[in-house]
Write a sequence for this structure.
């Protein structure tokens, strides 16, 4: 898949992509379940002629799928400086992050 959920470009979304592998795997699994269940709800709503609810559930499924996909990718740094979350691969030396500007608390 060559796309990324635009929400994951937000600082909070990048923080999600910076989580430790075991946490990203757990959330990815939940997101894939959410995608499947939301798709079922979308089909149910469509059959009951509830168009807006069908659209809502399809959007939920899409968001969950994009999030799961992003979480399946290698981790990013995710450190926030001046409101911008670094999207370099985790473990980079992050030349542009600026050590003093990193403000992601340890263990958060
Ligand atoms: Zn960085």
């Amino acid at each position: 898949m060559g796309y990324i959920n635009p929400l994951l470009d937000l600082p909070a979304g990048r923080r999600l992509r910076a989580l430790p592998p075991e946490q990203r795997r757990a959330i990815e699994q939940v997101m894939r379940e959410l995608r499947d269940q939301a798709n079922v709800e979308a089909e149910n709503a469509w059959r009951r002629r509830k168009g807006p609810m069908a659209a809502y559930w399809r959007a939920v499924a899409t968001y969950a799928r994009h999030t799961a996909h992003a979480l399946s990718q290698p981790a990013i740094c995710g450190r926030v400086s001046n409101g911008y979350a670094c999207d370099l691969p985790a473990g980079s030396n992050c030349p542009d992050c600026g050590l003093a500007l990193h403000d992601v608390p340890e263990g958060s």
Summary: The radius of gyration is 17 Å. The CA atoms of residues 29 and 68 lie 7 Å apart. Residues 99-103 have pLDDT under 50 and may be disordered. The first helix runs from residue 11 to 17.
